Amino acid sequence: MATAATILHADLDAFYASVEQLLDPSLRGKPIAVGGGVVLAASYEAKAFGVHGGMPGRRAHELCPQLIFVDGHFKDYQRLGDAAIKVIGDFTPLVERISIDEAFADVAGCTHLFGTPAEIATAIRRRVRAELGLPISVGVARTKHLAKIASQVAKPDGLVVVDPDTELEFLHQLNVELMWGVGPVTKARLAEIGVLTIGQLARTSGRSLERLLGPAAGDKLAALAWNRDPRQLRPHHRARSAGAQSALGRKPAVERVIRPTLLHLADRVATRLRAKSRPGRTVTVRVRFADLHAVTRSVTLDAPISATLILARLAEQLVRAILADHPHEKTISLLAISVSHLEEHWDLALELPLGLEDEVRRPGSRQGMARWAADCAVDKIRDRFGWDAIGYGSAALGLSRSVPDAFRSLAEKEL
After folding, report:
1. Is residue 401 scored above 60 in pLDDT?
2. Which of the residues are catalytic?
3. Cβ contacts of 129 within 8 Å, gap of 6 or more
4. H helices then E strands: how many in the chain?
């Protein structure tokens, strides 16, 4: 690992809400939320009342009666997010973008041109504010994990540089939920054994963490608690999988809920795979139940797929297998599909109609080719007239999508 603090993590503050306040100055200083039925993002003024992303709109209004809901300007999010990353790239080519509004940068090789890492971070913040009108927080540290934590501590609109000589002193005083990979469920489990800070986590025995979280997660968090993070930046890294998920609230685990949701998710995933000509061999589904307990199931195929209906049918089979293994679970809160083991160079092998049991899911079969042709026709129509111009059966009927697809697409990594 590096011995000097040269890793930057830059994160645009309350990005979507900040863009809305930029586009409409009358909203500045007021509590606003992007969305409607569900809060997609909230301004800091709204967060002060407890409003946060993913919250039902009705609950948000209860917490903040003066809350102003606005529609999202998704093209502006993409334009301004790209522009902010470009500012960072003007200082170093070693930039790893991890979402539309945040990125890591390694400035070790450019300090002779632009000054110390702290000076570079200050220059980035100044330019983003002056050129784009947006606030951005930056953390500077020796590792990616600590730089990300530092940027969270710096919010809103701040800069935190962690000295390598005092990094553990800085790290161990912080709340454990600031760590990468500690969500609400892990936080609650750690609280059960009295672990509330990163320092307490660092002093917890590995055996206790393994029993509580499992060997992989326990080892990972123990290492990060001591700032042992050997990961290097991966500039221009392409995603190794494509996925989509839908939070359902609390819905019954029945076909009228599951089938249209999975078809819609398969449509989003398969469209991306076809657009980049990168079919995949492994299909994975995730089902989260009402108690937030999640179960995954996957299958690896002989031939890579990117057809929407084939992917949807495989996902249905996997979800049914999960529900059969958990007969007492009657309520689900999330469904997700991902495709991995993506192929970059592949040839489609045509197959004879031999009446095989799994022929319907083979891309080279008669049914597979027919579905591929239908998908290509749908793609062409959408390219010309927009995504909503055409859809797939039950995926377009009766499915409530409180989170617009345009918003979801902002989080999808480049294939």
Report:
1. no
2. 102
3. 135, 136
4. 16, 12
Q: Which of 284, 345, 278, 343 is nearest to 311 (CA)?
A: 284
Measured in degrees and rounded to the nearest 5, phi and psi for residue 161 equal -110, 125
76-87 pLDDT, tens digit per residue, is: 999 999 999 999
Distance CA 203, CA 221 (A): 12
CB burial of residue 242 (10 Å; 0-12, 13-18, 19+): buried
Closest Cα partner for 24 from 130, 133, 111, 169? 133
- Tell me the pLDDT tens digit for each residue of 228-278: 999 989 887 666 888 888 878 788 999 999 999 999 999 999 999 998 888
Q: Is the pLDDT of residue 284 over 50?
A: yes
pLDDT for 204: 92
Q: Calculate the CA 209 to chain-centre distance.
A: 26
* Residues near 248 by beta carbon (within 8 Å), at least 6 away in sequence: 257, 261, 332, 333, 334, 335
